Amino acid sequence: MVMPQYDVYVNPNPRSRESVPFVVDIQSGLIDVLRTRLTVPLSKVGVDIPGLPKRLLPQFVVEGQRLALHAHAAAGIDARLLHDAVGSLADHAGEIRDALDAVVSGI
């Protein structure tokens, strides 16, 4: 199943969907053979807190909601749980990679 990198999906976990309505698929399409996709939560938490590092928690608008990308909470999700994409953050790929770099290398 081909799943474009940076597509946004409804959070498949109903227990956390209120605070984390969406996840963004950050996994390269070069490894579509895996049954899982590496995703990052798009959360309502952190949007209105001053002083949070914007590089680590960049904000995006998805379906009219301002959400923070929580790169530090990236996790694998079974690809079968990710249904029709509701949007794409491909235009913001650089910001997403910067946030992941901040988590992994601190730069």
Q: Please, could you describe this protein's structure?
A:
This protein is α+β, with helices and mostly antiparallel strands and 107 residues long. It has one domain (7-105): SH3 type barrels, CATH 2.30.30.110. The protein is 12% helix and 29% strand. It contains one helix and seven strands, in the order βββββββα. The protein has one helix at residues 93-105; strands spanning 7-10, 22-25, 36-43, 59-62, 65-69, 75-78, 87-88. Strands 1, 2, 3, 4, 5, 6 and 7 form a seven-stranded antiparallel β-sheet that branches. The protein is globular and about 40 Å long. The mean pLDDT is 92.
CATH topology assignment: SH3 type barrels
Q: Considering DSSP H and I runs of 4 or more, what fraction of the residues is helical?
A: 10-25%
Number of domains as seen in the coordinates: 1
Please identify, by name, the CATH architecture.
Answer: Roll
Provide the β-strand percentage band. 25-35%
Features:
single chain; 107 residues; alpha+beta; SH3 type barrels; seven-stranded antiparallel β-sheet; 1 helix; 7 strands; 29% strand; globular
Could you give a quick summary of the protein structure above?
The protein has one domain: Roll (SH3 type barrels), CATH 2.30.30.110. Helices cover about 10% and strands about 30% of the residues.
Present the secondary structure layout.
Blueprint: E1 7-10, E2 22-25, E3 36-43, E4 59-62, E5 65-69, E6 75-78, E7 87-88, H1 93-105
Antiparallel strand pairs: 1-2, 1-7, 2-3, 3-5, 3-6, 4-5
